[in-house]
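tool_log.txt
---
The assistant was asked to compare two proteins side by side. It first ran the structure predictor on the initial sequence, then on the second. Raw inputs and outputs are pasted verbatim so the downstream comparison step can read them without reformatting.
(1)
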Amino acid sequence: MLLLWSKGDPATNFTMSLKFLPLLVFTCCVFGTILARARQTNTYITHDRTLRARIIPVSRKCPESRLMILSRQGVLRYRKNFSSPDCEHGAAIVRGEWTPDSQFFVFNVESTGGHQPGHLPVYFYSQKRNKLYRLEDYIGYIVAQDFTLQAPHIIHTERQKWIGQRSFEEVPIQVNLGQIMKRRHSRTEPYKQARQ
């Protein structure tokens, strides 16, 4: 258990340790949820049944994930590895879903090492371009714990809006992925395709 002790007043030490208790409990719950989800392979099939997104755990002990996009015939189209050598600097895919028009696979990830607990960046794979994109590169820092999809390819989530220098508020936002892809100089994926 994480306790911050120093040579000093025991009452002060106890109070300091209680101050961090909610953070510790939250981190343990989130990490435990990731571990439970990560122990199984999940497959998501497009609505038109042409592609499958497969999320594969690295191992039973490591919650980090690998993403594979496969054709109907099982041919690998795309692969992304979110694992790290020490299983503490990668990411676990929390939830994924194809858009109703089957053009994008949308998913969120969480850091496995406890870095930024509760921050779940959203990624999307474009079937047409066969590339992966990070939504935050287009809309800014995402603060929502989840996302919802609307036809044909609209994501509903919340982003951070700064108020002054030290505070921010959560702003609901809807993003049309088709419009992002139409931009003349659309940013390519933040991470290169992993060919492993």
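(2)
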Amino acid sequence: MIDANWPNFRASSAATSPQMATLAFRRGRDDCDFWAAPLASVSLVTTSKIAGLLVLCALPFFAESALADKAEWADKWEGSYDPGRALRRSDVAIGLSLGVALGGVSGYPNDVQKLNDPAYEANLGAAAGGAGALWLGGALRDWFVFGVGYASSTTTGHGYTSVARDFILHIEGFPLFAKGGVWQNLALIGDFGGGAQKITKQGLTSGDGGAMAFVAFGVLYEPLRLGDHFSGGPVVEVTEQFSASLNAMLVTGGFQIAFYGGPS
């Protein structure tokens, strides 16, 4: 509160002594702070409320504009995109490959007490055998094919026999299809999945991979055309199947024949 006698006090005492002058200065500063603080607070709150109301009022206009631009962009993109008629492959796709396998396979019994113990290791050394795969899927574009299927291999070495069985996701991509010619038949392929593999000797299990992961990468070239729907050519892959107790790395090479539902 401002003292009603404050002016008189200030006039009468300002000249009496420096101490009284200092007291007067402090009293005046306190009165200014008393009135300035509420005014500043009211100003800040009012400004914040006004700014908030302006933002809320503007939001519907920005949202409407953004939705309109998005719809216009979508209409233009969908209207202008045309993949064209399939030239080489489309619709349902089925593939079968058969070939030989070369590589190394080694493992242990699926027993924690025997893992990494040389006394229980089963090693095929330079193993050789056969491999194959069958998959069913579709050709989404001339340059992209996918499917799900089953792959297997059987290899022997050093008196051991290894048999692997896997469920796979099969992918084929033809990255240079747009160049035409032979490039339309050259694909990079990949197989991903999991399964099981065992190593046996004289009918007894020497190695067991348990649940194993499977991955393969390779190249396919299918220049042969058999009628309107069948294509074929050589395929080469590097495959690996692995778990804590067994590892197999093979190079497979063979021939793949594929059926495509279109174009006809």
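---
observation on (2): The chain has a mean pLDDT of 82. The radius of gyration is 40 Å.
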